[in-house]
Structure formats: C-alpha cells, structure tokens
C-alpha cells in the first residue's frame, strides 16, 4: 500500500521544517520548495509474517517511507525497533534527503524498518523476517529506485540476507539493491567504520576552525557503540586525549586520557569494558557536563535538553548520533557560545561510503581502503567548506547553515526539473 502524506502534523519534524523555512527565506527561493519538502512521495506499510523458532507464525508491521527523489534514487536505512512507526520513518526520511543534499550525493531520502524488538530475535528468526520483508518491499525498491542500508537493530548480515532475497526474486545477482553489506558479497571496505570516521574528521575540522588544537584536546564520548568507538579510536590515533566514554549503563573518566584501544577490545558488544583501567565511574549525565574541549553525543537522540544544556562546559559539541540536541538545547548552547557541529554533516560518513559502495557495485570494481578514506575525506572537506561559508555569509549557526546549503541544492534541482 502506498500513499502521499503531508508532514506538518509530525512533531519530530517541527524543528526541521522551521529550519527549512529559515533556509528558504535566507536564499529567497520559491516558497513552494518548502511545500514540496513537507510532503513525502510515498508511504509503504506492509504486514510481515515470519515463523518463530517454536513454529508459531508472528505478523509484524514494516514501513518504507520515500521522501523526495529530485536529486536521485531514494536512500536510507532499515531499522528493527519497537519504536518504528510511520511518523518516525517520515521524519528520518526528510533528514536523509537533507543529508544527501548537503554532501552532494545523487540520492533522495528514505527510511524504513520493522516494529520488532531485535533482541527478541534469534539469528534464524532475524533471517526469516528479513527475507520476508525484502519480498514485501520488492516492488518499491531497487538499485536505481530505492537503496536501503543498515540502521539501528540491523547489520551487514541483515543486508546480505536482504540482498540475497531480492536477487533470488530477480533471478540474477543484484548487489546494488542495498549498501552496508559485508565486503565478501559486494560491500565496501571502510563502510562499517565510516560514520565514526566522519565524526572524527568533523571534530578535527571544527577544532581547527575554532582554534582548539586537536593534539592533546580532551574528548568525551557518550555512546560507545559503533559510531562512538570508531570516532574515539580515530581521534586517539590523531593525538587527542579521549578522557571519558560511556554506554547505556554509565561510563568511565580519566582526566589524563583513557586507553582507547583497550576499551575497544570487545567492539562487537558495544559496552564499555573498564576492567584493568584506572578510571572513575560516572553517569551519562555527568559525562555531558565534563569540562572538556569536545563533547561527542553518539548514543541516542534528545540527550542534550533545555534542562542540562546550561551545564555543558565543552568548547564545542560534535553530534555523532541522530538528533542528540533538542531545539531548546540548541538555543541555550548558542547563547552560551558553544558551537554545535550538526549530525547531518558529522555522521554523514555512512551514507557517503554507501554511495561509494553503490558505485563499486555498478562498476564491478573494488576500491582499496585508502581510496575509500581519501574519497570520504574529500567529500567531507568540500561539505565543511560550504557549511562554514554559508554560516558566515548568512550569519547563522552551523545547523542552520547545513539546511541553507541542502535546501539550496534541492531548490536548484527542482527549478531545473520542474514540479
């Protein structure tokens, strides 16, 4: 089933739509662009039956929201979470459109997933669910139409199952139908680490711009999953002092710097292993208030709020998670002179290397890891230069500047293509 839906009543999008308003005014573009960005092209809601290991058949609900394809095929993650619903997918699809535009990638935004608890799935159940979900979405996705990727609760293995199911239905290999696959089946080297690496690059560039020396800079990372671990490891290699990290249960702090490689030993668990480290324990709230040069919220959305933003003592904030700073917190941080490098830029390494993977699948040529790193660096540096230029010329925050750049590129495309 598909439908077109106006997004003005979706609370998760309110701030984004406000930022789009600011961008259209700043750029003096046709107000109709805002109207187009407020609407999603299609919403697909499907029932996904799958068999449990005990023989029971369970039916869960899946979604795929396709926002806007004026720049190219739809692109966005698939997540397995009990929180998945149409509103969440619609909001994230719009943000993906803006992210792809900001990074000058030839994609539009999409998002999807299944309302299920991934921790309640055995490997066999996860596979059966994924293969059936691929069947349900078969008519609305494709290498030139809509290219999913892993997200919360899904992985490289999920994408391999999804790709195999789609290829079986198509009667031929179609590795380009998804990105974020294992390299053995057409995935790109460096894809898994790309979001964290882009956070590290964003931190490096922001430190340089705001005259915070990266060498010896103190960094606190909230959220030690894939993004937080890779960001911490890269910044540690570049000479920064990662002094605090945390997971859902709390974290550890050492003002002289943590043993980051040691903390990352059990990277697959996503949990902070403090055994053998001389640290003091702290809560996630305490970590956010540490006196550090850089704070990286890389866990979940909405952790920086109007209530705790006044306690932030970091010189700058680099968003590793999606939406970790609420609009009210943004205003507090801006008033206190704390720059925020927005998620739409900082964690864009995932979709950028997904684009590289898509190119590799189409050309049937594998890139080396140095090639991937070099191309990612080039894309991010170009986007950073545009971001800073827009911030300075329009006298707006980096987040507002990101929307100015993204909306401007979309407006140009709409102008040339027409409605």
From TrEMBL:
Q: Where is this site: Important for catalysis?
A: 151
Taxonomic lineage per UniProt? Archaea, Methanobacteriati, Methanobacteriota, Stenosarchaea group, Halobacteria
User: What GO annotations for molecular function exist for this entry?
Assistant: oxidoreductase activity
Taken from the record, one Pfam family name reads ELFV_dehydrog_N
Domain Glutamate/phenylalanine/leucine/valine/L-tryptophan dehydrogenase C-terminal, chain residue ranges per copy:
188-418
| Chain segments carrying region Disordered | 172-192
Family listed: Belongs to the Glu/Leu/Phe/Val dehydrogenases family.
Which UniProt key words apply to this protein?
Oxidoreductase
Q: Which domain of life is it from?
A: Archaea
Task: Output compositional bias ranges, type Low complexity.
Answer: 182-192
List the active site. 111
Q: What Gene3D superfamilies does the database record attribute to this sequence?
A: Leucine Dehydrogenase, chain A, domain 1, NAD(P)-binding Rossmann-like Domain
Q: Which residues form a coiled coil?
A: none
Signal sequence bounds? none
Q: How does it assemble?
A: Homohexamer.
- Protein name, UniProt field: Glutamate dehydrogenase
């Amino acid at each position: 089933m598909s439908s077109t839906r106006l997004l003005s009543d979706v609370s998760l999008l309110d701030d984004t739509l406000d930022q789009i308003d600011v961008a259209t005014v700043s750029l003096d573009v046709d107000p109709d662009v805002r109207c187009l960005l407020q609407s999603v092209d299609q919403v697909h809601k499907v029932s996904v039956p799958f068999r449990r290991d005990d023989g029971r058949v369970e039916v869960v609900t899946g979604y795929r929201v396709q926002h806007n394809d004026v720049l190219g095929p739809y692109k966005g993650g698939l997540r397995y979470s009990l929180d998945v619903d149409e509103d969440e997918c619609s909001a994230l699809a719009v943000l993906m459109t803006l992210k792809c535009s900001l990074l000058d990638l030839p994609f539009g935004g999409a998002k999807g997933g299944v309302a299920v608890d991934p921790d309640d799935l055995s490997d066999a159940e996860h596979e059966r669910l994924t293969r059936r979900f691929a069947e349900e979405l078969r008519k609305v996705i494709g290498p030139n139409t809509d290219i999913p990727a892993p997200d919360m609760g899904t992985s490289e293995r999920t994408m391999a199952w999804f790709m195999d199911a789609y290829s079986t239905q198509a009667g031929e290999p179609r590795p380009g139908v998804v990105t974020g696959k294992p390299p053995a089946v057409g995935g790109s080297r460096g894809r898994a680490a790309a979001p964290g690496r882009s956070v590290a690059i964003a931190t490096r560039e922001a430190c340089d711009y705001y005259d915070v020396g990266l060498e010896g800079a103190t960094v606190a990372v909230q959220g030690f999953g894939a993004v937080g671990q890779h960001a911490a490891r890269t910044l540690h290699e570049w000479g920064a002092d990662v002094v605090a990290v945390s997971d859902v249960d709390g974290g550890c702090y050492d003002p002289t710097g943590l043993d980051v490689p040691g903390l990352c030993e059990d990277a697959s668990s996503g949990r902070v292993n403090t055994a053998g480290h001389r640290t003091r324990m702290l809560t996630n709230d305490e970590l956010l208030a540490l006196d550090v040069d850089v704070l990286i919220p890389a866990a979940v959305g909405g952790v920086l709020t109007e209530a705790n933003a006044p306690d932030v003592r970091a010189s700058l904030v680099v968003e590793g998670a999606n939406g970790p700073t609420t609009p009210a917190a943004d205003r507090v941080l801006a008033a206190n002179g704390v720059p925020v490098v927005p998620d739409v830029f900082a964690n864009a390494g995932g979709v950028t290397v997904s684009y590289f993977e898509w190119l590799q699948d189409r050309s049937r040529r594998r890139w080396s890891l140095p090639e991937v790193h070099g191309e990612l660096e080039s894309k991010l540096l170009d986007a950073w230069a545009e971001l800073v230029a827009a911030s300075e010329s329009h006298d707006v925050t980096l987040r507002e500047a990101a929307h100015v750049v993204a909306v401007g590129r979309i407006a140009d495309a709409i102008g040339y293509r027409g409605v």
